[in-house]
Specification:
By secondary structure, this protein is an alpha+beta fold. The chain is 31% helix and 26% strand. The chain has helices at 10-19, 51-61, 71-75, 78-84, 94-101, 103-112, 126-136, 159-171, 239-259, 293-299, 304-312, 391-402, 418-423, and strands at 2-7, 27-32, 42-43, 65-68, 89-90, 120-123, 140-144, 153-156, 182-186, 191-199, 204-206, 211-212, 215-217, 221-224, 229-232, 266-275, 278-285, 327-334, 360-364, 367-370, 373-376, 380-388. The chain starts with a strand and ends with a helix. Bound molecules: adenosine monophosphate and glycine (GLY).
Length: 424
Amino acid sequence: MKVLVIGSGGREHALVWKLSQSSRVDKVFCAPGNAGISGIAECIDIKADDVDALLNFVKYEWIDLTVVGPEGPLTAGIVDTFVKEGRRIFGPDSSGARLEGSKIFAKDFMLKYGIPTAEFKTFSSYLQAEEYVRLKGAPIVVKADGLAAGKGVIVAETVDEAKSALKMIMRDRAFGDAGNKVLVEQCLKGEEISFMVLTDGKTVVPLATSQDHKRIFDGDRGPNTGGMGAYSPASIVTESLRSDIMQNVIDPMIKGLQRERMNYRGVIYVGLMICDGKPYVLEYNCRFGDPEAQPILMRLDSDLFDLLKATAESRLKDVKVLWKDDASVCVVLASKGYPGSYEKGETIKGLDSFKGDENVMVFHAGTSLNNGEIVSSGGRVLGVTALGKDIRTAKDHAYKAIEKIHFKGMHYRKDISDKAIKRQ
Ligand code: AMP
Ligand code: GLY
Protein backbone atom coordinates (compact mmCIF):
# COMPACT_ATOMS: atom_id res chain seq x y z
CA MET A 1 0.00 0.00 0.00
CA LYS A 2 1.07 3.57 -0.64
CA VAL A 3 0.51 6.31 1.93
CA LEU A 4 0.74 10.08 1.65
CA VAL A 5 1.26 12.15 4.81
CA ILE A 6 0.52 15.88 4.49
CA GLY A 7 2.57 18.34 6.54
CA SER A 8 6.13 19.18 7.49
CA GLY A 9 6.51 19.20 11.27
CA GLY A 10 7.58 16.90 14.08
CA ARG A 11 4.10 15.38 14.23
CA GLU A 12 4.34 14.42 10.56
CA HIS A 13 7.84 12.97 11.03
CA ALA A 14 6.46 10.78 13.83
CA LEU A 15 3.47 9.73 11.68
CA VAL A 16 5.71 8.86 8.73
CA TRP A 17 8.13 6.96 11.01
CA LYS A 18 5.37 4.86 12.55
CA LEU A 19 3.49 4.26 9.28
CA SER A 20 6.65 3.09 7.55
CA GLN A 21 6.99 0.31 10.16
CA SER A 22 3.77 -1.33 8.96
CA SER A 23 4.23 -4.54 7.01
CA ARG A 24 1.30 -3.45 4.84
CA VAL A 25 2.94 -0.20 3.76
CA ASP A 26 5.24 -0.38 0.73
CA LYS A 27 5.94 3.29 0.35
CA VAL A 28 5.35 6.53 2.25
CA PHE A 29 5.30 9.95 0.61
CA CYS A 30 5.20 13.24 2.46
CA ALA A 31 4.13 16.65 1.15
CA PRO A 32 6.12 18.77 1.68
CA GLY A 33 8.04 17.03 4.53
CA ASN A 34 11.38 18.12 6.00
CA ALA A 35 15.00 16.95 6.13
CA GLY A 36 14.36 14.23 8.71
CA ILE A 37 11.32 12.90 6.86
CA SER A 38 13.30 12.75 3.60
CA GLY A 39 15.51 10.10 5.21
CA ILE A 40 12.60 7.63 5.51
CA ALA A 41 10.03 8.76 2.93
CA GLU A 42 9.87 10.44 -0.44
CA CYS A 43 9.20 14.13 0.04
CA ILE A 44 7.06 15.81 -2.60
CA ASP A 45 7.29 19.50 -3.24
CA ILE A 46 3.60 20.33 -2.79
CA LYS A 47 2.38 22.67 -0.08
CA ALA A 48 0.06 21.26 2.60
CA ASP A 49 -2.79 23.57 1.57
CA ASP A 50 -2.58 23.01 -2.19
CA VAL A 51 -5.58 20.66 -2.29
CA ASP A 52 -5.79 20.40 -6.09
CA ALA A 53 -2.13 19.50 -6.51
CA LEU A 54 -2.36 16.97 -3.67
CA LEU A 55 -5.39 15.34 -5.28
CA ASN A 56 -3.62 15.13 -8.64
CA PHE A 57 -0.62 13.53 -6.97
CA VAL A 58 -2.81 10.98 -5.17
CA LYS A 59 -4.50 10.04 -8.45
CA TYR A 60 -1.24 9.84 -10.37
CA GLU A 61 0.54 7.69 -7.75
CA TRP A 62 -2.51 5.58 -6.83
CA ILE A 63 -2.14 6.47 -3.16
CA ASP A 64 -4.20 4.13 -0.94
CA LEU A 65 -4.42 6.34 2.15
CA THR A 66 -3.82 10.04 2.73
CA VAL A 67 -3.17 11.19 6.30
CA VAL A 68 -3.59 14.91 6.99
CA GLY A 69 -1.29 16.33 9.68
CA PRO A 70 -2.15 20.03 10.16
CA GLU A 71 -5.53 21.74 10.59
CA GLY A 72 -5.24 24.14 7.61
CA PRO A 73 -6.12 21.68 4.83
CA LEU A 74 -8.84 20.11 7.02
CA THR A 75 -10.69 23.36 7.65
CA ALA A 76 -10.20 24.21 3.96
CA GLY A 77 -12.14 21.05 3.05
CA ILE A 78 -9.49 18.64 1.73
CA VAL A 79 -11.47 15.67 3.06
CA ASP A 80 -14.68 16.79 1.31
CA THR A 81 -12.78 17.03 -1.98
CA PHE A 82 -10.98 13.70 -1.62
CA VAL A 83 -14.12 11.82 -0.55
CA LYS A 84 -16.05 13.24 -3.49
CA GLU A 85 -13.33 11.79 -5.72
CA GLY A 86 -13.52 8.42 -3.98
CA ARG A 87 -10.12 8.72 -2.25
CA ARG A 88 -9.40 7.22 1.16
CA ILE A 89 -8.36 9.95 3.60
CA PHE A 90 -7.85 10.21 7.37
CA GLY A 91 -9.32 13.39 8.86
CA PRO A 92 -12.67 15.13 9.43
CA ASP A 93 -14.47 16.92 6.63
CA SER A 94 -14.91 20.68 6.83
CA SER A 95 -18.01 20.40 9.04
CA GLY A 96 -16.09 18.37 11.64
CA ALA A 97 -13.00 20.56 11.32
CA ARG A 98 -15.09 23.57 12.39
CA LEU A 99 -14.60 22.29 15.94
CA GLU A 100 -11.09 23.70 15.60
CA GLY A 101 -11.70 26.28 12.88
CA SER A 102 -14.24 28.29 14.90
CA LYS A 103 -13.85 28.59 18.64
CA ILE A 104 -17.37 30.02 18.91
CA PHE A 105 -18.80 27.05 17.02
CA ALA A 106 -16.90 24.75 19.40
CA LYS A 107 -18.21 26.53 22.51
CA ASP A 108 -21.79 26.49 21.21
CA PHE A 109 -21.37 22.77 20.54
CA MET A 110 -20.15 22.22 24.12
CA LEU A 111 -23.08 24.18 25.55
CA LYS A 112 -25.62 22.34 23.41
CA TYR A 113 -24.34 18.90 24.45
CA GLY A 114 -23.69 19.69 28.11
CA ILE A 115 -19.91 19.39 27.92
CA PRO A 116 -18.13 21.11 30.83
CA THR A 117 -16.23 24.24 29.76
CA ALA A 118 -15.39 27.76 31.00
CA GLU A 119 -18.18 30.34 31.10
CA PHE A 120 -17.98 32.66 28.07
CA LYS A 121 -19.61 35.31 25.91
CA THR A 122 -19.08 36.07 22.24
CA PHE A 123 -18.78 39.52 20.66
CA SER A 124 -18.57 41.09 17.26
CA SER A 125 -18.52 44.61 18.71
CA TYR A 126 -15.25 45.85 20.19
CA LEU A 127 -17.00 48.27 22.56
CA GLN A 128 -19.33 45.63 23.96
CA ALA A 129 -16.43 43.21 24.43
CA GLU A 130 -14.44 45.88 26.25
CA GLU A 131 -17.36 46.68 28.52
CA TYR A 132 -17.78 42.99 29.39
CA VAL A 133 -14.08 42.69 30.21
CA ARG A 134 -14.33 45.70 32.55
CA LEU A 135 -17.40 44.19 34.19
CA LYS A 136 -15.82 40.76 34.71
CA GLY A 137 -12.31 41.90 35.69
CA ALA A 138 -9.08 39.93 35.37
CA PRO A 139 -7.68 37.35 34.96
CA ILE A 140 -9.73 36.73 31.84
CA VAL A 141 -9.16 35.01 28.50
CA VAL A 142 -9.62 36.64 25.09
CA LYS A 143 -9.81 34.41 22.00
CA ALA A 144 -10.07 35.19 18.30
CA ASP A 145 -12.82 33.04 16.80
CA GLY A 146 -10.91 31.70 13.80
CA LEU A 147 -7.54 30.07 13.14
CA ALA A 148 -4.66 32.32 14.15
CA ALA A 149 -1.61 30.07 13.90
CA GLY A 150 -1.79 29.29 17.61
CA LYS A 151 -1.53 32.98 18.57
CA GLY A 152 -5.20 33.88 18.91
CA VAL A 153 -5.59 33.16 22.64
CA ILE A 154 -4.51 35.70 25.24
CA VAL A 155 -4.68 34.80 28.91
CA ALA A 156 -4.85 38.33 30.33
CA GLU A 157 -3.69 38.90 33.89
CA THR A 158 -5.04 42.46 33.96
CA VAL A 159 -8.01 44.31 32.42
CA ASP A 160 -5.57 46.46 30.43
CA GLU A 161 -3.95 43.37 28.93
CA ALA A 162 -7.37 42.05 27.95
CA LYS A 163 -8.27 45.40 26.38
CA SER A 164 -5.06 45.43 24.32
CA ALA A 165 -5.80 41.87 23.20
CA LEU A 166 -9.26 42.95 22.04
CA LYS A 167 -7.76 45.93 20.26
CA MET A 168 -5.12 43.79 18.56
CA ILE A 169 -7.69 41.26 17.36
CA MET A 170 -10.71 43.45 16.56
CA ARG A 171 -9.33 46.90 15.71
CA ASP A 172 -5.81 46.19 14.38
CA ARG A 173 -7.08 42.94 12.85
CA ALA A 174 -3.85 41.09 13.63
CA PHE A 175 -5.43 37.82 12.44
CA GLY A 176 -7.60 39.29 9.67
CA ASP A 177 -11.11 37.82 9.42
CA ALA A 178 -10.27 35.25 12.11
CA GLY A 179 -10.82 38.15 14.53
CA ASN A 180 -14.23 39.29 13.24
CA LYS A 181 -15.66 37.78 16.40
CA VAL A 182 -14.08 37.12 19.78
CA LEU A 183 -14.76 34.98 22.78
CA VAL A 184 -14.22 36.38 26.23
CA GLU A 185 -13.86 33.53 28.66
CA GLN A 186 -13.53 32.84 32.36
CA CYS A 187 -9.91 32.03 33.25
CA LEU A 188 -9.62 28.49 34.57
CA LYS A 189 -6.87 27.52 37.00
CA GLY A 190 -5.60 23.98 37.01
CA GLU A 191 -3.43 21.56 35.10
CA GLU A 192 -3.79 21.03 31.36
CA ILE A 193 -3.76 17.68 29.61
CA SER A 194 -4.22 16.53 26.04
CA PHE A 195 -6.78 13.79 25.54
CA MET A 196 -6.91 12.46 22.00
CA VAL A 197 -9.34 9.96 20.55
CA LEU A 198 -9.67 8.31 17.18
CA THR A 199 -13.24 8.28 15.98
CA ASP A 200 -15.13 7.30 12.87
CA GLY A 201 -18.23 9.03 14.20
CA LYS A 202 -19.56 5.82 15.79
CA THR A 203 -16.74 4.20 17.72
CA VAL A 204 -14.24 6.02 19.91
CA VAL A 205 -10.75 4.73 20.60
CA PRO A 206 -8.93 6.80 23.23
CA LEU A 207 -5.20 7.22 22.64
CA ALA A 208 -2.60 7.34 25.40
CA THR A 209 -2.83 10.50 27.48
CA SER A 210 -0.20 13.23 27.32
CA GLN A 211 0.72 16.63 28.67
CA ASP A 212 2.14 19.49 26.63
CA HIS A 213 4.29 22.40 27.91
CA LYS A 214 2.97 25.48 26.14
CA ARG A 215 5.02 28.27 27.67
CA ILE A 216 8.50 29.02 26.42
CA PHE A 217 10.33 29.04 29.79
CA ASP A 218 10.76 26.58 32.65
CA GLY A 219 8.08 26.70 35.32
CA ASP A 220 5.42 27.54 32.68
CA ARG A 221 6.58 31.13 32.38
CA GLY A 222 6.77 33.43 29.35
CA PRO A 223 4.70 33.54 26.18
CA ASN A 224 2.76 30.62 24.72
CA THR A 225 4.36 28.53 21.99
CA GLY A 226 3.18 25.69 19.77
CA GLY A 227 4.43 23.37 22.52
CA MET A 228 7.94 22.99 23.98
CA GLY A 229 7.72 19.35 24.99
CA ALA A 230 5.32 16.62 26.01
CA TYR A 231 5.24 13.35 27.84
CA SER A 232 2.99 10.31 27.94
CA PRO A 233 1.21 8.95 29.89
CA ALA A 234 -0.18 11.94 31.81
CA SER A 235 -0.12 10.56 35.33
CA ILE A 236 -2.69 13.08 36.56
CA VAL A 237 -5.29 11.00 34.69
CA THR A 238 -6.28 8.42 37.30
CA GLU A 239 -8.80 5.69 36.50
CA SER A 240 -11.60 7.74 38.03
CA LEU A 241 -10.66 10.92 36.14
CA ARG A 242 -10.44 8.87 32.97
CA SER A 243 -13.97 7.54 33.38
CA ASP A 244 -15.18 11.05 34.23
CA ILE A 245 -13.62 12.31 30.96
CA MET A 246 -15.11 9.47 28.93
CA GLN A 247 -18.56 9.86 30.42
CA ASN A 248 -18.86 13.65 30.64
CA VAL A 249 -16.63 14.89 27.82
CA ILE A 250 -16.15 12.22 25.16
CA ASP A 251 -19.53 10.46 25.10
CA PRO A 252 -21.59 13.66 24.74
CA MET A 253 -19.10 14.89 22.12
CA ILE A 254 -19.68 11.79 19.98
CA LYS A 255 -23.42 12.08 20.48
CA GLY A 256 -23.11 15.70 19.28
CA LEU A 257 -21.13 14.71 16.18
CA GLN A 258 -23.86 12.24 15.28
CA ARG A 259 -26.76 14.60 15.96
CA GLU A 260 -25.10 17.37 13.96
CA ARG A 261 -24.38 14.86 11.17
CA MET A 262 -20.71 15.76 11.10
CA ASN A 263 -18.61 13.43 9.03
CA TYR A 264 -15.75 12.81 11.39
CA ARG A 265 -13.21 10.13 10.57
CA GLY A 266 -10.03 11.21 12.23
CA VAL A 267 -8.55 12.25 15.53
CA ILE A 268 -10.12 14.69 17.98
CA TYR A 269 -7.68 16.34 20.33
CA VAL A 270 -9.52 17.58 23.40
CA GLY A 271 -7.52 20.13 25.37
CA LEU A 272 -8.64 19.80 28.98
CA MET A 273 -8.04 21.84 32.10
CA ILE A 274 -8.29 19.71 35.22
CA CYS A 275 -9.68 21.94 37.96
CA ASP A 276 -10.08 20.36 41.41
CA GLY A 277 -10.06 16.93 39.82
CA LYS A 278 -12.75 17.76 37.23
CA PRO A 279 -12.22 18.09 33.45
CA TYR A 280 -13.19 21.26 31.52
CA VAL A 281 -12.74 21.53 27.77
CA LEU A 282 -10.48 24.40 26.69
CA GLU A 283 -10.48 23.61 22.99
CA TYR A 284 -10.88 21.00 20.31
CA ASN A 285 -8.31 20.35 17.63
CA CYS A 286 -9.18 18.26 14.63
CA ARG A 287 -5.71 16.72 14.31
CA PHE A 288 -2.95 15.12 16.35
CA GLY A 289 -1.19 17.40 18.83
CA ASP A 290 2.32 18.53 18.09
CA PRO A 291 4.50 17.68 20.03
CA GLU A 292 2.10 15.28 21.82
CA ALA A 293 1.99 12.92 18.81
CA GLN A 294 5.72 12.25 19.14
CA PRO A 295 5.75 10.62 22.61
CA ILE A 296 2.37 8.97 22.00
CA LEU A 297 3.40 7.34 18.73
CA MET A 298 6.64 6.13 20.31
CA ARG A 299 4.53 4.25 22.84
CA LEU A 300 2.15 2.78 20.29
CA ASP A 301 2.57 -0.99 19.89
CA SER A 302 -0.17 -1.44 17.26
CA ASP A 303 0.12 -0.93 13.52
CA LEU A 304 -0.65 2.75 12.90
CA PHE A 305 -1.58 2.15 9.27
CA ASP A 306 -4.28 -0.36 10.32
CA LEU A 307 -5.66 2.13 12.84
CA LEU A 308 -5.79 5.09 10.48
CA LYS A 309 -7.15 3.06 7.57
CA ALA A 310 -9.87 1.56 9.79
CA THR A 311 -10.80 5.08 10.94
CA ALA A 312 -11.01 6.34 7.36
CA GLU A 313 -13.19 3.32 6.43
CA SER A 314 -15.51 3.63 9.47
CA ARG A 315 -14.35 0.27 10.82
CA LEU A 316 -12.84 1.38 14.11
CA LYS A 317 -14.93 -1.12 16.05
CA ASP A 318 -12.77 -3.89 14.56
CA VAL A 319 -9.46 -2.62 15.90
CA LYS A 320 -7.63 -2.89 19.18
CA VAL A 321 -4.91 -0.50 20.28
CA LEU A 322 -1.93 -1.71 22.26
CA TRP A 323 0.57 0.47 24.10
CA LYS A 324 4.04 -0.18 25.39
CA ASP A 325 4.36 -0.07 29.18
CA ASP A 326 7.23 2.37 28.76
CA ALA A 327 6.75 6.09 29.30
CA SER A 328 7.96 8.63 26.77
CA VAL A 329 9.27 12.20 26.94
CA CYS A 330 9.75 14.63 24.04
CA VAL A 331 11.81 17.81 24.43
CA VAL A 332 11.59 20.44 21.70
CA LEU A 333 14.79 22.21 20.64
CA ALA A 334 13.93 25.67 19.35
CA SER A 335 15.67 28.38 17.33
CA LYS A 336 17.02 31.56 18.87
CA GLY A 337 14.18 34.08 19.11
CA TYR A 338 11.28 31.57 19.06
CA PRO A 339 8.32 32.10 19.67
CA GLY A 340 9.05 35.56 18.27
CA SER A 341 10.85 35.97 14.97
CA TYR A 342 13.68 33.47 14.89
CA GLU A 343 16.90 32.64 13.11
CA LYS A 344 17.11 30.03 10.38
CA GLY A 345 19.79 28.23 8.42
CA GLU A 346 21.93 27.09 11.37
CA THR A 347 23.82 23.83 10.80
CA ILE A 348 22.66 21.03 13.11
CA LYS A 349 25.38 18.76 14.48
CA GLY A 350 25.24 15.42 16.25
CA LEU A 351 22.20 13.91 14.56
CA ASP A 352 24.08 10.75 13.58
CA SER A 353 24.75 9.83 17.23
CA PHE A 354 21.39 8.05 17.60
CA LYS A 355 21.34 5.66 14.66
CA GLY A 356 20.30 2.22 15.91
CA ASP A 357 19.16 3.45 19.35
CA GLU A 358 15.56 2.22 19.59
CA ASN A 359 14.89 4.24 22.72
CA VAL A 360 15.61 7.63 21.21
CA MET A 361 14.08 9.26 18.15
CA VAL A 362 14.97 12.74 16.98
CA PHE A 363 11.90 13.93 15.13
CA HIS A 364 12.54 16.88 12.84
CA ALA A 365 10.13 19.80 13.08
CA GLY A 366 11.76 22.70 11.25
CA THR A 367 14.72 21.43 9.24
CA SER A 368 15.80 21.46 5.63
CA LEU A 369 18.73 20.31 3.52
CA ASN A 370 21.29 22.81 2.35
CA ASN A 371 24.08 21.40 0.17
CA GLY A 372 23.72 18.04 1.86
CA GLU A 373 23.79 19.55 5.35
CA ILE A 374 20.82 19.57 7.73
CA VAL A 375 19.99 23.11 8.80
CA SER A 376 17.29 24.74 10.93
CA SER A 377 14.34 26.21 9.05
CA GLY A 378 11.62 26.71 11.66
CA GLY A 379 10.99 27.97 15.19
CA ARG A 380 10.66 24.49 16.60
CA VAL A 381 13.56 22.57 15.07
CA LEU A 382 13.74 19.10 16.62
CA GLY A 383 11.74 16.97 19.07
CA VAL A 384 14.11 14.68 20.94
CA THR A 385 11.88 11.85 22.10
CA ALA A 386 12.91 8.99 24.38
CA LEU A 387 11.36 5.92 25.97
CA GLY A 388 12.09 4.70 29.49
CA LYS A 389 10.61 2.34 32.05
CA ASP A 390 9.06 5.35 33.77
CA ILE A 391 8.84 9.09 33.14
CA ARG A 392 11.99 9.85 35.12
CA THR A 393 14.05 7.38 33.06
CA ALA A 394 12.55 8.58 29.79
CA LYS A 395 13.37 12.17 30.77
CA ASP A 396 16.98 11.21 31.58
CA HIS A 397 17.32 9.49 28.20
CA ALA A 398 15.91 12.50 26.34
CA TYR A 399 18.15 15.06 28.06
CA LYS A 400 21.26 12.83 27.70
CA ALA A 401 20.52 12.62 23.96
CA ILE A 402 20.21 16.40 23.73
CA GLU A 403 23.80 16.77 25.01
CA LYS A 404 24.94 15.29 21.69
CA ILE A 405 23.01 17.76 19.50
CA HIS A 406 23.96 21.30 18.75
CA PHE A 407 23.00 24.24 16.57
CA LYS A 408 23.73 27.91 17.10
CA GLY A 409 21.11 29.61 19.30
CA MET A 410 19.44 26.29 20.28
CA HIS A 411 17.29 26.56 23.38
CA TYR A 412 14.91 24.26 25.21
CA ARG A 413 13.08 23.78 28.48
CA LYS A 414 14.88 21.79 31.17
CA ASP A 415 11.76 20.78 33.09
CA ILE A 416 9.71 18.74 30.61
CA SER A 417 7.77 16.09 32.60
CA ASP A 418 8.76 17.43 36.03
CA LYS A 419 5.10 17.77 37.00
CA ALA A 420 4.67 14.01 36.51
CA ILE A 421 7.91 13.20 38.33
CA LYS A 422 6.82 15.27 41.34
CA ARG A 423 3.62 13.28 41.50
CA GLN A 424 5.46 9.91 41.58
P1 AMP B 1 -6.66 27.16 23.19
O1 AMP B 1 -6.09 27.39 21.82
O2 AMP B 1 -8.08 27.50 23.35
O3 AMP B 1 -6.28 25.85 23.79
O4 AMP B 1 -5.82 28.14 24.11
C1 AMP B 1 -4.39 28.11 24.16
C2 AMP B 1 -3.96 28.05 25.60
O5 AMP B 1 -4.50 29.12 26.33
C3 AMP B 1 -4.43 26.80 26.33
O6 AMP B 1 -3.61 25.73 26.09
C4 AMP B 1 -4.40 27.28 27.76
O7 AMP B 1 -3.08 27.23 28.26
C5 AMP B 1 -4.82 28.72 27.64
N1 AMP B 1 -6.29 28.85 27.87
C6 AMP B 1 -7.28 28.76 26.93
N2 AMP B 1 -8.48 28.94 27.49
C7 AMP B 1 -8.27 29.12 28.80
C8 AMP B 1 -9.12 29.35 29.93
N3 AMP B 1 -10.45 29.45 29.80
N4 AMP B 1 -8.55 29.49 31.15
C9 AMP B 1 -7.21 29.43 31.29
N5 AMP B 1 -6.35 29.23 30.29
C10 AMP B 1 -6.86 29.07 29.05
N1 GLY C 1 0.61 21.11 21.26
C1 GLY C 1 -0.58 21.81 21.06
C2 GLY C 1 -1.25 21.59 19.78
O1 GLY C 1 -0.89 20.72 19.02
O2 GLY C 1 -2.21 22.30 19.51
